[in-house]
Every structure is written in structure tokens, then in C-alpha cells.
Design brief:
The complex is a heterodimer of chains A (187) and B (184).
Chain A lengths: L4 H28 L1 H6 L1 H31 L9 H31 L8 H32 L4 H27 L5
Helix pairs in contact in A: 1-6, 3-4, 3-5, 3-6, 4-5, 5-6
Chain B lengths: L1 H28 L2 H6 L3 H29 L10 H31 L6 H33 L3 H31 L1
Helix pairs in contact in B: 1-6, 3-4, 3-5, 3-6, 4-5, 5-6
Chain lengths: 187, 184
């Protein structure tokens, strides 16, 4: 027998406790802005989308870097061209995905009469700018985590995804409120 | 050519997961009244979703490895190895959900917001365990289909669980909040 439920609980508990401490912090930021979010629910709908897309892009990037490092076609150098290409493509995928989803969310929200307080162009600008800032941050963290893990003999496949999604969740919320402030939307 | 291949392979899946996230986000969008009535509810949402995602993707990738190691397959799926995994997943969900409830309550107190501790912990436990049960069964179902067709589970379970996991979890939080609000 290779699996034992007690071992699964013991191994999972430490990592998860650290993760949820950071997530509860993200939740408290949301609570402090709750009133404004309830007045503009389109941004409430947007939060899971913003976070999920960057989490996926960061995880895919991490998995590709891990494979490249394991096989040897990516070297542990911040000047590695293959890594730069991967980073650039992650950003491009991010810009495309966020623009597409922004239009879709606005369209869906218009059925619930949630778009009266904000114009389409402004919503797209806020959503895409937040998304691009987040993808850039998450991708850099992905590269750093993959490289540092690999250097220390850890498998980036185990480390990148949980770190990138957890940090991404907090940064997504922080960037959203920063960008909303920048655009003078009442939050 | 290389860049084109990369975009072609990962873009559709990332957009698809984004569509799933819109469903999860819309569920959150219709919860505005509940969020107003239950202080602290919004605090636990990112944590429950993250817990669910972490526990089920780890479960999925362990089952993938178990398949590659030859300890489970389509004809021998419900064995002791799988049972240990299922028990571990559910016990872990119970512990972590309790910690989320307590942590959200104590940090709220520090910030001078006073949620009802019984309500908050009940919602987190109910949502955490029910979504855990549903996603565990779903993972086993997906793994069974993947085995039957001879695909590599490592390529399928991650994205499938990420997409459906968030939706199932969000709906479970919504349902649990209504149930607890009605009962307590």
C-alpha cells in the first residue's frame, strides 16, 4: 500500500494552512471594500475571472519552464531566450483572453442591468489593465519560483502552481482596486 | 512556428477555464443580499475556493501517479489505495475548513467587524465538505472515463477540476449560506 490517509492529511495541512492564511488576508481586503463592490456587482463577478485566468497562465508557464529545465532546453539564466519567448507569449495570451472575457462579462452583466453605472470602454480598460498587470506579475513569480526551485533540487511542478495561484489571488484584488482608483471609479 | 504551437495548445483551454470562472463569478454576483446580511461571508470565499482547488488537484494528480504506478486502473478502481485517498481528502477538507472559519472570525474581530461565529464556521464547514464530496466523486468519474479511453490522466484532470471545481464550490457556498441563514 502506498497511500495512507493520515499521511495525506499531515502533508497537506501545512501547505494549506499557509495558503488559507494568505487567502483570508485577500478576503479581508474584499470585506473592507464590500460596500463599493455591492454597488458595482460587475466587479464582484470579475474577481474570480481575473484570478482564475492569471492562475492558469502562470501554472501553464511554470509547467513549461519545469519541463524545459528538466530536459535541458531552458538554462538557469535570466537571459535565456527560450524563457523570454515563453514570458512574452504568456503576456499575449493574457491580453487576448482578458479582452475577450471583458466583453463577454459586460454583455452578460447587461442582462442583469448591472452595467448602467459603467461604460463598456471603461470596463474593458479597467479589466484588461488589471489583467495585464496581474499576468506580468504572476509570470515573473512563475519564472523566479521555477528557477529557484530547480536550483535547490525541488521539482518546479510541485511548487509553482500553489505559489502562483495564492499570490495571484491577493495581487489580483490589490491591482483591481488600484486600477479602479486610477480610473476614478467610486471604490 | 514554436510560438504559434504554444498559443494554439494553451489558449483554448485558458479561455475555456475563463468561461467557467464567469459562471463562478456570476454566482458571486447574485449573492449580494447574502453578503450584506452575513458579515464575514466575503472573507471566507477566496479561502474556500483555494482550499478546494488545492485539495482536489492534488487528489487528481495522486490518482494520475497511482495509475502510472499501476496500483489503480479502470477494472480495479475502488480499492484500498483509492479509499485511503478519499478519506485523506475529506478529513483534510474538514480540518482546513474549520481553520478558515476560525481565522476569518478572529481577523474580522481584530478589524472591528463582528460576524456570528457559529454561522460563519457552519457555512464554511458545510460548503467545504459538500463541495469536497461532489468533487471527489467527480474526480473519480473523470479518472474512470480517462482510464477507459486510455488517455494520460495528468493532461486531463487538472484543467477539468480547475474549471468545474470553482463553479461547484461557489454554488456550494451559496447554498450553504442560504441553508445556514434559514436554520440559524
Amino acid at each position: 500500500m502506498i497511500y495512507n490517509w493520515k499521511k495525506i492529511v499531515k502533508l497537506g495541512l501545512f501547505l494549506l494552512t499557509v495558503t488559507i492564511m494568505i487567502e483570508v488576508f485577500a478576503g479581508q481586503i474584499l470585506q473592507s471594500k464590500q460596500e463599493s463592490l455591492l454597488l458595482l456587482p460587475i466587479f464582484l463577478i470579475s474577481i474570480p475571472v481575473i484570478n482564475s485566468v492569471s492562475g492558469n497562465i502562470g501554472s501553464v508557464l511554470g509547467a513549461r519552464l519545469a519541463s524545459g529545465l528538466h530536459v535541458g532546453y531552458i538554462t538557469l539564466s535570466l537571459k535565456d531566450k527560450e524563457m523570454h519567448d515563453n514570458l512574452l507569449i504568456s503576456l499575449l495570451i493574457g491580453v487576448f483572453t482578458y479582452t475577450f472575457l471583458a466583453i463577454l462579462i459586460y454583455f452578460i452583466a447587461s442582462f442583469g442591468n448591472l452595467t448602467e453605472d459603467i461604460a463598456l470602454s471603461k470596463f474593458i480598460a479597467i479589466f484588461v489593465l488589471t489583467g495585464v498587470l496581474l499576468v506580468a506579475t504572476v509570470s515573473l513569480i512563475s519564472v523566479l519560483t521555477a528557477f529557484l526551485s530547480f536550483k535547490r533540487g525541488l521539482d518546479p511542478d510541485d511548487t509553482v502552481a500553489p505559489i502562483v495561484t495564492t499570490v495571484g489571488d491577493v495581487m489580483g484584488i490589490v491591482f483591481l482596486f488600484l486600477v479602479l482608483g486610477l480610473f476614478g471609479v467610486g471604490i | 512556428m514554436y510560438a504559434k504551437e504554444m498559443v494554439k495548445q494553451s489558449l483554448p483551454l485558458i479561455v475555456f477555464c475563463g468561461l467557467g470562472a464567469i459562471v463562478a463569478g456570476s454566482t458571486l454576483g447574485v449573492m449580494t443580499d447574502l453578503l450584506r446580511e452575513i458579515p464575514g461571508l466575503i472573507v471566507v470565499i477566496p479561502a474556500i475556493i483555494a482550499m478546494r482547488g488545492n485539495i482536489s488537484t492534488a487528489f487528481g494528480s495522486r490518482l494520475g501517479s497511482a495509475y502510472h504506478l499501476g496500483v489503480i486502473d479502470a477494472d480495479n478502481l475502488w480499492n484500498e489505495e483509492l479509499k485511503q485517498n478519499v478519506i485523506g481528502t475529506l478529513v483534510l477538507s474538514f480540518f482546513v475548513a474549520s481553520i478558515i472559519g476560525l481565522l476569518a472570525y478572529t481577523t474580522s474581530i481584530l478589524l472591528h467587524i463582528y460576524p456570528d461565529p457559529v454561522k460563519l464556521v457552519s457555512i464554511v464547514l458545510l460548503a467545504g465538505i459538500i463541495s469536497g464530496l461532489i468533487l471527489t466523486l467527480m474526480t473519480i468519474g473523470v479518472i474512470y472515463l480517462v482510464f477507459k479511453r486510455g488517455y494520460d490522466p495528468d493532461n486531463i484532470t487538472g484543467p477539468a477540476l480547475a474549471t468545474f471545481g470553482d463553479i461547484v464550490t461557489m454554488i456550494c457556498i451559496f447554498g450553504s449560506a442560504i441553508v445556514v441563514e434559514v436554520i440559524l
